[in-house]
Amino acid sequence: MARRNKLYEGKAKILYEGPEPGTLVQYFKDDATAFNAEKKDVIDGKGVLNNRLSEYFMSGLNNIGVPTHFIKRLNMREQLIRQVEIIPLEVVVRNVAAGSMSKRLGIEEGTPLPRPIIEFYYKDDKLGDPLVTEEHIVAFGWANQQDLDDMVALAVRVNDFLSGVMLAVGIRLIDFKIEIGRAWEGDFQRLIVADEISPDSCRLWDIESGQKLDKDVFRRDLGSLADAYTEVARRLGVLPSNV
Ligand code: C5P
C-alpha cells in the first residue's frame, strides 16, 4: 500500500491523510505519557487495545445518535475518521472526585459528587492545559455560547452512555475527557465527538475491589498498564486476539 501522508503526530496517535476528502486515518501508538510528557514509556499492545476500545465506545455512541468522528476500524492500529476542526478545549466530566480536582479542591479521591461536574481545559502543552471558565472560552473566541451549550449536551450524553456501558461490566466511570470538533455538512456546522475514548482518557475503577483499570496505573506506578487495559477490553468482549 502507498505510504500515507502524515499530517500530525501527537503523544499517543498519528493522523494521516485519508482515502477520501474529509477523512483521516488515525493511528494508535504504543507510547504512554503522563504529566505533560515528563513521564514516558512504550507499552506493548496499548495502541491495539485503545484502537479497539475507542472503536467500541465511538460506534456505540454513533448508534444511539451521539455523533462522533469514527467511521470504521481499518486494521489493528488504524481507524478511518471524519476530519474535523478540533475545538482547543478538553472537556472533562466527573462523577466522583479524583485526580486534579481532588488535588485542587482538597476533596478526598473517591468522594461521589452530588451531580456530574463538567470542566473545560484550554489545550496548550506549554501552559499545561489550564482550567478555564466559560467566560474565558467565549471572550477568547475558542467557542461561542451556542457551541458551549452543544458541548455540554454532548458531554452529558457521553457520560450517561459510558457510565451505563461500564456499570454493566462491573466498572465505575469516575471521570473522562473528550475532545470535540466542528464537522461541516454543506453550509451547516455541527459539533461531534473526536479524538479517542479509551482508558488513556478515562478513570475506571472496579466496582468491587476499587482496582484502577486506567492510565493512573501508569501515572502512579501501580502495575501493568497493558494488563489493566486488557481487563477492560476482556470485560467488554472486544479483546483483540493477538494481544
Ligand atoms: O487529571 P485530571 O483529574 O484533571 O483528569 C480528569 C480526566 O481527564 C481523567 O480521566 C484523565 O485521564 C483525563 N485527561 C486526559 N487528558 C488530559 C488530562 C486529563 O485524558 N490531558
Tally of distinct domains: 2
Distinct small molecules bound, one entry per kind: cytidine-5'-monophosphate
Tally of DSSP β-strands:
14
Distance between the termini: 24 Å
**Which stretches are poorly predicted, pLDDT < 50 over at least 5 residues?**
none
**So what's the overall shape?**
globular
Q: What is the CATH class of the largest domain?
A: Alpha Beta
- What share of the residues lie within helices? 25-40%
- Cα radius of gyration in angstroms: 17 Å
- Return the CATH architecture of the largest domain: 2-Layer Sandwich
Query: Which band does the percent of strand residues land in?
Result: 25-35%
- What is the residue-mean pLDDT, rounded to a whole number? 96
Q: Find the CATH superfamily of the largest domain.
A: ATP-grasp fold, B domain
Number of helices: 6
Taking the sheet with the most strands, its summary is: 7 strands, antiparallel
Order of helices and strands: EEEEEHEEEEHEEHHEEEHH
Briefly note the CATH topology name of the largest domain.
Answer: D-amino Acid Aminotransferase, Chain A, domain 1
Protein name: Phosphoribosylaminoimidazole-succinocarboxamide synthase
Enzyme class: ligase
GO cellular component, one term: cytosol
Domain SAICAR synthetase/ADE2 N-terminal: 6-235
What's the SSE blueprint?
Blueprint lengths: L5 E4 L3 E5 L5 E6 L2 E4 L4 E4 L3 H18 L6 E4 L4 E5 L2 E2 L2 E8 L2 H7 L6 E11 L8 E2 L1 H6 L5 H23 L3 E15 L2 E7 L7 E5 L9 H4 L5 H12 L7
Antiparallel strand pairs: 1-2, 2-3, 3-7, 4-5, 6-7, 8-12, 9-10, 9-12, 10-11, 12-13, 12-14
Helix pairs in contact: 1-6
Cytidine-5'-monophosphate binds next to strand 9, helix 2, strand 12 and strand 14.
Keywords: ATP-binding, Ligase, Nucleotide-binding, Purine biosynthesis
Enzyme class: ligase
Catalytic activity: 5-amino-1-(5-phospho-D-ribosyl)imidazole-4-carboxylate + L-aspartate + ATP = (2S)-2-[5-amino-1-(5-phospho-beta-D-ribosyl)imidazole-4-carboxamido]succinate + ADP + phosphate + 2 H(+)
